[in-house]
Amino acid sequence: MTICPTKALFRRPDGIVDFDADRCIGCKSCMQACPYDALYIDPITRTAAKCNYCSHRVVRGLLPACVVVCPEKAIIAGDLDDPTSEIHQLVAREPVMVRKSEQGTRPKLFYLGADEASLTPEVQTRTNGYLWAEVRPDDRPAEAVRGAEYLPGPADARVADDVCIPSRGDGRSPVISGRSRSEAVRWRWVGRCSPVA
Amino acid sequence: MSDRLLGIGAAAIGMVFLAITALLLIWDLKRPERFWYLLGKPNPRSWLVWGGYILLVVGGLAFFWAVASLAGWQGIERLLAWLALPGGIAAAGYTAFLFGQAEGRDFWQSPLLLPILLVQALVAGTAALLLLLVAGGALEGRAWLGWVLGGGLIGLFVLVASELLVPHANLHVAKAARLLTHGPYRGERLVVGLGVGVLVPLIALALGWAGGNLAPWSVVAAVAALIGLWSYERLWVETGQDIPLS
Question: How far apart are CA B96 and CA A149, in angstroms?
Fold first, then answer.
């Protein structure tokens, strides 16, 4: 958070790292500083954005939306400092893993039963050629996505994930982007969305 | 004449490129109309903010240096020239601390980044002065700038080779370095970065000294060195971002 030149990215007293879009100048430095690739550019507001642990729900005593909506209870949330909480007992009991603790981020997101290769992207070896997938036209890593490229790749989700793109006025429905452009085509927003001023 | 040319020309070159830098930084913002937040709502712990201040101060120094040189105020000009030395070091070196704060990119966390940036600034500045002096027909008596350029390029080669070829801090850095040494950037790094950027200038300078006609060869050396710097810097920045974080 030290890199943010306008304090748009900040840590709340309760420990949640939150974001003030009204202060953001869109310098993208936070995207280079976050070792978890957690920030992306909201194409509507043209500012950075990130998950803030549904802080608007948490302050009202509600669980984050992803926890509520997950049908498999794969996400456990709660107060780590409360010894009676499920999350506290789970972390104390199970062999959990964290990502990039060596960066000094004191991560509070714990993975249970995760494979090392799924937590450390550098460990994975990806070639540019897949039997049934599109491949990059150049020799750069398949994960490398920059600028206005829309080739399938994990970084696509970072650019515009979980946001709606207004209709272009041609009557077509807005599209919610998925992990890649090809995947996004399968998901269309039926209703209209209002651009944020 | 050459002192006056250097005084006005160096300051003018500094101002032009500082202005270009500032404009490019603002143009790259997603919300460029908010650039003034850097001054109005600053985070004093961010090197992006300090970089903005440094560019402003160094731009002011260059402006007053040019004015003093034009007006013939030699005492003030000399003072400003000395102040421009730490100013130039700060303007060239703050990026190392800014990239140091970009902790997601391990490839940019190199402890050699600060010395590399300073040597690159030395090379770029010397190349610009050589071009200026040749254009003004005032290279006579300033041939030592060729030695500075050659020495800077050799030093830069050693530093960059050390950065790329020594054992790396972790797998992230190793994979990024491999993109430069064995991957898709290898060709440009070798041909433009090393060939055009280092070998051509050194050969040109050697031919200039051997033939006793340094002026035309120093132009070749300076232009080639600047092209090599531009190429390697672009590759280095892109490589750091090619390793996925998630």
Answer: 28
Mutate which: B28, B29, B30, B97, vs A, most A CBs within 10 A: B30
Do the chains contact at A141 and B41, CB–CB below 8 Å?
no
* Chain A CB contacts of B183 below 8 Å: 139-140
pLDDT tens readout for residues B102-138 = 988 999 999 999 999 999 999 999 999 999 999 888 8
Q: In chain A, positions 9-28, which contact chain B (CB-CB < 8 Å)?
A: 23-28
Residue A47 to residue B30, Cβ atoms within 8 A: yes
Model confidence pLDDT, tens digit, residues A92-114: 999 999 998 888 888 889 999 88
Q: Which ipTM score applies to this complex?
A: 0.84
Residue A65: burial class (beta carbons within 10 Å; 0-12, 13-18, 19+): exposed
Please tell me the pTM assigned to this model. Answer: 0.80
CB atoms within 10 A of CB B115: 17
- Chain center to CA of A126: 21
